[in-house]
Amino acid sequence: MHQRARYATLSCIILMSFVALYRKYSSILTVDDAQGLEFPGLEGEYTIMHPTLIPDPPPRPLPPVPLERGSDGPRANATFIILARNSDLQGALLSVRQLEDRFNRRYHYPYVFLNEEEFTEDFKRRIRNLTPSKVEFGLIPKEAWFQPEWIDAEKAQAAMVRMERANVKYGGNLAYHNMCRFNSGFFFKHPLVLQYEWYWRVEPNIKFHCDIIDDPFMYMVQNNKTYGFTLSVYEIPATIKNLWLTVKDFMTEYPEYILPSSVNALDFISNDGGRSYNRCHFWSNFEIASLGFWRSEAYTAFFEFLDKTGGFYYERWGDAPVHSIAAALMLPRSSIHLFEEIGYQHDDWSHCPRSQELWERGRCLCTEKDSFDYSWDSCRPKWDSLVATG
Ligand SMILES: Nc1nc2c(ncn2[C@@H]2O[C@H](COP(=O)(O)OP(=O)(O)O)[C@@H](O)[C@H]2O)c(=O)[nH]1
Ligand SMILES: [Mg+2]
């Protein structure tokens, strides 16, 4: 009996030792790691190598990125312009945060926010908190925003009801009509914008996928560019039923403002030498452009000609086709620039640089296969063929 008790005690001690050892090492013994593990104090005898895993290749050196580039280089007389409602605050914060991180922390270009209502103190405080740059908040004058008196309100209302029933995007939304007219004919005349020569239009809730290393404004200045874009798309036909007819009337009345088709970008917006509009337009939610062009005699005449037909209300003309048609007819095609390196997303539509070199240099988040550029409803192929013809 005495003997048995001694055996039992000994067995217990041995068992408890095994349990203690197991507890100590079990967590590391089950780690599934390709690199192998060294346990301090055990001189490598418990090193585990998983036989089936292939080790990562050594990191490939990336090209050096001149992150501080431009911090004391020349600057353009330029600003960001963001049209927004107070309810767009969250989206505006996201856009500014990205713009600062990807570009403006090195350049400190100012911002102008515009709204047809006063921005709230909270809106201003939270935006100002994101950037050391100058930020100004402007109220849009009533005459630059609301439907003018000379518009037949009943006719405009009937048109909106018709478009709403026909599911025309934003057709029944009066504020959207106001916004399109404002962006077509007024933003560049706002008192806070008058001091600048160049602007970059930014919307709430957009994304910048890549570092923007070089200054796009200075690129425009130094390379004789007037209008810059990233995405181009086809307009919804029901929104612009009579736009091209009106443009043709303008071209007949003011031929002096239209450049020869061998020089301008007519072939981007028309497949038949100007008889019809192919609905291609630069997507104006992103624009880097000269304010002087919109303030020019030629564009002023163009906008006033379109505006007096009432098409911003009797139809739903967008500022994108209006800007694009003017740029394509009145500018040399060589002064219109595609910013290939700027990875950009608006809603579900995304531009991602296709060149490996640009993609790596910009440390882009996007992937080329998600780029909209060569989807069936993108006008990028038309732009490429225009550029290819020189
Ligand atoms: N202040 C103000 N901004 C507006 C209004 N409607 C649209 N916007 C702005 O105009 C731009 C285009 O509007 P959005 O809804 O994004 O239209 P989409 O890009 O054509 O789908 C964005 O910058 C909006 O913040 C409005 O009623 N008031
Ligand atoms: Mg938008």
Helix-strand category = alpha/beta
Number of domains: 2
Main beta-sheet strand count, sense and barrel state: 7 strands, mixed
- CATH architecture descriptor of the largest domain: Alpha-Beta Complex
Task: Please describe the structure with a list of short key phrases separated by commas or semicolons.
single chain, 390 residues, alpha/beta, Spore Coat Polysaccharide Biosynthesis Protein SpsA, Chain A, seven-stranded mixed sheet, three-stranded antiparallel sheet, 15 helices, 12 strands, 11% strand, elongated, binds guanosine-5'-diphosphate, binds magnesium ion
Give a written overview of the molecule.
The protein is α/β, with parallel strands linked by helices. It has 2 domains: 83-139, no CATH class; 149-388, Spore Coat Polysaccharide Biosynthesis Protein SpsA, Chain A. Helix content is 38%, strand content 11%. It is built from 15 helices and 12 strands. The strands form 3 sheets. The protein has a 7-stranded mixed β-sheet. Helix 6 (174-185) runs parallel beside helix 13 (319-330). The longest helix is centred in the first third of the chain and has 28 residues, at 2-29. The chain is elongated, with a radius of gyration of 30 Å. Residues 25-48 have low confidence and may be disordered. The structure holds guanosine-5'-diphosphate and magnesium ion (MG).
